[in-house]
Amino acid sequence: MSRIRAEQQDGFYDVLRNWLHNQPWFPRVQGRWKLHRAGGMRLPTPEGDRDAQLTLELHLFDVEHQDGRERISVPVALRSRPSAHVGKNVLIGKLGGDRDQEIWIYDGTRDRAFLAAWLELARREQGTRNGRIHGRAWAGFAEREPFTTWLTRSAVDDGDQFSSRALVAPPGVDAQAHASQKVLVDFSRILTHERPEAVETALTLSSSGGSSISPVLGAVTVADPIRGVSDLALIREGSVEAHSALKLLRSQLRIAPDQRRGEVRSPAPQETSSAETSDEDATAGVAEEHLVDEKAVETLHQLGESLARFHYDLATSFGAHPQTNDQIREAAAALSTDLQKTWDAARPAFTDEDATRLDGVISEMAQHIDDVDRALVLQRIHGSLTLEHFHEQGAPGQWIIDERDGVVDHAPALWDVVSVMLSLAHVVSTVDGSDAGARFTTLCSSFLEGYRHAGLAEDVPQGVMFRAVLLKRALETYPGYGREWIFRFTETD
């Protein structure tokens, strides 16, 4: 039997237009729009599918509208009968009125046969005859066992509004296995010849052997003589879809006090001379004894080490340099001004007692900021890091960081440290109990200890600049929400 060609079927474009218009990634166009086919390819049918007429195609379309043109990628699977393994939510539409001539069109990014063929395209580094579409494999991906339709696809949220994501368990890997044993495929829906910085970061860190992110295993690209090269898909290890640190910590900290096991007491403050006093000493513990789950303390230590490794990988891959004298002065002046403005806006939300105390703290900080002469190291960082960006890699204590939603250049690493601490503050504030401040101090101490203990970062979060940034961000994030213990954490030098 001859295989189907989508563009030759009556009604194909009508069905496709109706489906496209309802997809979250489709360009938000005003008025009329037209589809112009700009290219594509037919993929070999992988082993294991019983539909003899199965056809797997990638279509590239230009969407023409009143504001211009945008190129989109539409993978499809054409079947002669409905597929029980795909599901109705993946159905694009049906063509033909007679039962013997029905053609069922499915979204290829959710079809097992298309996913297997697509992964094989990258694993075998194959492509079109004219060389425009080409698959690439890295990090031992080419040596893996072939992908067949016996793989398992897990439902996951799309990577972002311009892509579609699928998590694939290769043949022989149980669907319930840890995400690190699976493969993540991010299909680009809106094509651009400029890679997002986050994607470029992932590719660079993977090629340099960095262990702090989910490694890139392969890619499929398309070349255009006018538009240049665009990514059709990136293939990664699936760890980024594993449980996040946020979810784990919530479970570790929601244990009732009388049901805890393996608890530890918070460390007592260490005695040091005034010359040796640092933020590490300030956050080493609190006077009153309290109980914190041992597993949560250990998790925070691991996250600190993981963040230090991430910053190290970024610094070695993209470079790092200390601030110049002019940059030191400019950064100090800007922070002092911003801190005061932030406090002026937040002050009405505090009690008179707390406001008076913070008046003194901020005034003293401003004096010390003006005297700062220590150069911070500037490098590429994440910039929007939270506990949700940390994911279990499989082995106990091993975490990777999801680099999406981030990438800031020429910034101090302490920004990421502060972002994680504020994310932790939110978790702590939702836990039952009256010892939130003591718990926060202990967990932050473990996190900072892990970061410093790793010995990888060129700079460590300490000093008045660190405390001032933390206080400013805390005032911006939690004004008037009854979390005064966050602000007390920043007061001791």
From TrEMBL:
As recorded in UniProt, its EC number(s) are 2.7.1.175
Record-linked InterPro entries? Kinase-like_dom_sf, Mak_N_cap
Q: What class of enzyme is it?
A: transferase
Write down what this protein is called: Maltokinase
Q: Name one GO biological process term.
A: glycogen biosynthetic process
Instruction: List each copy of the Maltokinase N-terminal cap domain by range.
Output: 19-111
Q: Which UniProt keywords apply?
A: ATP-binding, Carbohydrate metabolism, Glycogen biosynthesis, Glycogen metabolism, Kinase, Nucleotide-binding, Transferase
Recorded GO molecular functions are: ATP binding; kinase activity
Q: What is the lineage of its organism?
A: Bacteria, Bacillati, Actinomycetota, Actinomycetes, Micrococcales
How is the quaternary structure described? Monomer.
What protein family is recorded?
Belongs to the aminoglycoside phosphotransferase family.
**Superkingdom, natural source:** Bacteria
Q: In which pathway does it act?
A: Glycan biosynthesis; glycogen biosynthesis
Region Disordered, as annotated, extends over: 258-284
**What is catalysed by this protein?**
D-maltose + ATP = alpha-maltose 1-phosphate + ADP + H(+)
